[in-house]
């Protein structure tokens, strides 16, 4: 089942699309100027200007967002018999971690003194000088549904119409291209052992060059890319994957054609982050670039993700994929398992990963 969001001048509409019918749910009074500007100011703008404050406010903001979207009523009226949601957001909602939207008002207070400066992208503010606490929800949207969040219905249809063989897929790995991510080394070396990835398909450090990266993407069906990346919100086509000898930009990826590629896991920062133009709602992210280039499915990130928790998340995701789970179900279960660990209960550590494309 698909949920398509659309914000107009006065209201936000949620179209519930099933095979047999389409239903409409209206959030009255939540128009562009009131609702979307509130999301942009309190989520994306705050992330850009003060990441520590953005993270500290995450739980409260997501609770308020769930209330403004009337999520509890929407579920009760339209989604009681649904197990999987395909969400097509609008404007700033593209940047929201729907997996972490609370579906209950029950909360729990947890310690939150883990350092925030060891990410796969831009630096956070320094480690807090004293133990802090934060309040998070007990139950989230991802506890109830498998989720896929896609840029548009057109891209989903584009992926669905591709005809690709998935027999005996080859995996390629790009590991720690700049040499400063210990979690990336642990993550990629474990995956290489599990999937028996040969050395010529495993690009480490100085071998992770721009040319080698592009050639690898042409050779394999599964690409696991683990290194630094960053989104350029002023010029999205300059959003980049950082490699040993240079960068691969979104503009580069849009020129690629990767007919063999089925799965991409972008274990990097901000690969699904962009600044949305209210006029056309175009999604210009590195993840969208790989979908356009030929991938059937992309796992990407909404913000600067932490090195250690990301390594653990990747292990869990592939573990569940190996057990036969679909991509969105493997993602959901990996998020749920990571949340069980004391250090990683905060949504910052697990909710930034999104599955796009086919299941």
Strand order of the largest sheet: 9-8-10-14-15-16
Number of domains: 2
Total helical segments? 13
Strand segment tally: 16
Kindly describe this structure.
With 359 residues, this protein is an alpha/beta fold. The chain has two domains: 149 residues, no CATH class; 138 residues, Rossmann fold (3-Layer(aba) Sandwich), CATH 3.40.50. Helices cover 34% and strands 21% of the residues. It has a six-stranded mixed sheet with strand order 9-8-10-14-15-16, with helices on both faces. The protein has a five-stranded mixed sheet with strand order 3-2-1-4-7. Strand 1 and strand 2 form a beta hairpin. The protein is globular and about 55 Å long. About 3% of the residues have low confidence.
SSE order and pairing:
Elements lengths: L1 E6 L4 E6 L4 E6 L4 H18 L1 H6 L1 H11 L2 H8 L5 E5 L18 E5 L21 E5 L3 H4 L1 E4 L3 H8 L10 E5 L6 H13 L7 E3 L5 H10 L2 E5 L2 E2 L9 E4 L2 E4 H4 L9 E5 L18 H8 L3 E5 L5 H16 L4 H13 L7 H4 L2 E5 L2
Parallel strand pairs: 1-4, 4-7, 8-9, 8-10, 10-14, 14-15
Antiparallel strand pairs: 1-2, 2-3, 5-6, 11-12, 12-13, 15-16
Helix pairs in contact: 1-3, 7-11, 11-12
């Amino acid at each position: 089942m698909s949920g398509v969001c659309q914000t107009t001048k006065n209201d936000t509409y949620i179209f519930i699309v099933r095979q047999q019918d389409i239903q409409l749910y209206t959030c009255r009074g939540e128009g562009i100027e009131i609702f979307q500007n509130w999301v942009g100011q309190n989520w994306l703008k705050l992330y850009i200007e003060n990441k520590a404050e953005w993270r500290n406010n995450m739980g409260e903001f997501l609770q308020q967002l769930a209330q403004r979207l009337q999520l509890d009523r929407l579920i009760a009226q339209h989604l009681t018999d649904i197990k999987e949601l395909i969400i097509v957001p609008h404007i700033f909602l593209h940047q929201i971690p729907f997996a972490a939207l609370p579906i209950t008002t029950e909360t729990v207070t947890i310690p939150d003194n883990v350092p925030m400066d060891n990410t796969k992208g831009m630096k956070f503010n320094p480690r807090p000088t004293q133990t802090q606490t934060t309040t998070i929800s007990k139950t989230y949207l991802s506890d109830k549904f498998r989720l896929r969040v896609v840029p548009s219905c057109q891209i989903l249809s584009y992926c669905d119409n591709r005809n690709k063989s998935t027999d005996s897929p080859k995996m390629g790995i790009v590991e720690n291209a700049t040499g400063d991510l210990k979690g990336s080394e642990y993550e990629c070396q474990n995956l290489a052992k599990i999937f028996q990835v040969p050395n010529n398909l495993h690009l480490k450090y100085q071998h992770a060059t721009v040319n080698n990266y592009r050639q690898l993407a042409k050779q394999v069906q599964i690409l696991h890319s683990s290194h630094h990346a960053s989104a350029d919100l002023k010029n999205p086509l300059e959003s980049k994957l950082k490699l040993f000898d240079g960068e691969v930009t979104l503009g580069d990826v849009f020129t690629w054609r990767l007919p063999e590629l089925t799965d991409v896991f972008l274990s990097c920062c901000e690969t699904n982050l962009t600044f949305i133009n209210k006029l056309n709602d175009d999604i210009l992210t590195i993840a969208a670039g790989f979908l356009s280039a030929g991938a059937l499915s992309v796992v990407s990130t909404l913000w600067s993700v932490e090195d250690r928790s990301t390594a653990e998340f990747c292990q869990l995701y592939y573990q569940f994929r190996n057990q036969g789970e679909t991509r969105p179900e493997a993602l959901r279960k990996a998020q749920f398992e990571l949340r069980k660990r004391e250090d990683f209960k905060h949504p910052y550590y697990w909710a930034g990963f999104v599955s796009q494309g086919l299941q």
